[in-house]
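idk why but the lab printer keeps eating my pages so im just putting this in chat instead. protein + S-adenosylmethionine:
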Amino acid sequence: MPDSPYERLEAAWLPARADGVLGSAPMQELVTHTAGYVSAVCAVLGVDAHQVAGVGVDVGTGAGVPGLLLALAMPQMRWRLVDASERRCDFARAGVQAAGVQDRVSVHHGRAEDLGHQGEWREAHDLAVARLLGTPAETGELLMPLVRPAGLVVVSARKEATAAWSEAPLDAVGAEFVGVDHLNEGSFVTLRRSGDLVAALPRRNRARRRSPIF
Ligand SMILES: C[S@@+](CC[C@H](N)C(=O)[O-])C[C@H]1O[C@@H](n2cnc3c(N)ncnc32)[C@H](O)[C@@H]1O
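predcted complex ->
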């Protein structure tokens, strides 16, 4: 389809690609991979992608992957795309404009461990996602505090790393394991916010590195 949002995004992302932020995966591969998140969410909620509503957050979005592609796949959802790098946020902002989703997608320069303690962010999202952010402990500690009780987290993982998720003591980050989906060469881990959220989480970088939550 000429001049589709994906084509405009592809053009807007050229500087990000030149910067090495998006790697070499062609747009179609990114879209295909993103379908794994969509499929995992829809399977749990029992609805199709066009019916999923609410607020999502993509932590460590880089140039906007997967959050911006999820916004195109789930047209009723609002998204916050977060990255610690201002330069990467600029790439994501260019992508948001090119895709024409600025009415429901915003980009925020910040760190998840800071935002997770702020009233407008803590437990304020129905869904949190991440791609290539870190270990299960790191990802769980950063994402879970952003999600409302019973909300979902979906992260992509290497197939051989999915056991680490299913065996992790996720109650330490106020989560329970829902399942793993394998789709289009990717593996997607789904968690649900449950139980108590420890007030001190997420901790700062140094504390997380010195003493991983599990
Ligand atoms: C390997 S990149 C992945 C980018 C993107 N998700 C993708 O798949 O192309 C990881 C990103 O996470 C961001 N990041 C790392 N730790 C973060 C934190 N604590 N809060 C927010 N962003 C973080 C980095 O700046 C970087 O852009």
